[in-house]
């Protein structure tokens, strides 16, 4: 599901809550914290420009991003608990996520910053994806020697069935995110599903 900003309805009658704007984002399995945060911030800015002062309701869905215990991994948890509820919530009227449904107890703020700043390794800077370091999802990678089954990878990525993450075609192949030649493990978290064509085109690195 692509990002969407949807007008929920015309101006509401006096004494009722205005419909406002609905903001939708689907946090895909391949998105890390930085990519997701930047996209959420971008659709918030677009909604504020398109419908100034209209109540904004954000809906977030999450694909994959599961940890070993079956909950959400660090990227998804940080997006929901810290970025949405801790940073973006003042600029929204309502937030709905797989973990929380929260309403802004005060008036929705309209002074949205022009640039999103992300704290990275102790220094704050304007967002630049190429400047940020890659963050491992787990500090204790698996020492598994055999490759996991295709279905296990699909389950981890939150896919209903094994399909290519780029073109959504089948059949698929198991593709290392970080190749074994560069120290990548055979842990299910180090795999993506790609069709033969896109696996052949994939760069040799994470």
Structural topology:
Elements: E1 4-7, E2 21-27, H1 33-50, E3 56-62, H2 74-88, E4 94-96, E5 101-103, E6 117-120, E7 123-126, H3 150-157, E8 173-176, E9 191-194, H4 196-201
Parallel strand pairs: 2-3, 3-4
Antiparallel strand pairs: 1-2, 4-5, 6-7, 8-9
Helix pairs in contact: 1-2
Fold and architecture overview:
By secondary structure, this protein is α/β, with parallel strands linked by helices. The protein folds into 2 domains: 4-131, no CATH class; 150-201, no CATH class. The protein is built from 4 helices and 9 strands. It has a 5-stranded mixed β-sheet with strand order 1-2-3-4-5, with helices on one face. The protein has a two-stranded antiparallel sheet with strand order 6-7. Helix 1 (33-50) packs parallel to helix 2. The longest helix is centred in the first third of the chain and has 18 residues, at 33-50. The radius of gyration is 19 Å and the shape is elongated.
**H/E element order:** EEHEHEEEEHEEH
Q: Any low-confidence stretches, pLDDT <50, length ≥5?
A: 9-13, 121-141
**Strands side by side in the biggest sheet:** 1-2-3-4-5
Mean pLDDT: 78
Helix count, DSSP H or I runs of 4 or more residues: 4
Strand proportion, as a percent range, falls in 15-25%
Q: Which overall shape is indicated by the principal axes computed on the Cα atoms?
A: elongated
What proportion of the residues is helical, as a percent range? Answer: 10-25%
Helix/sheet category: alpha/beta
The radius of gyration computed from the alpha-carbon positions, rounded to a whole number of angstroms, is 19 Å
Cα(first) to Cα(last) distance is 24 Å
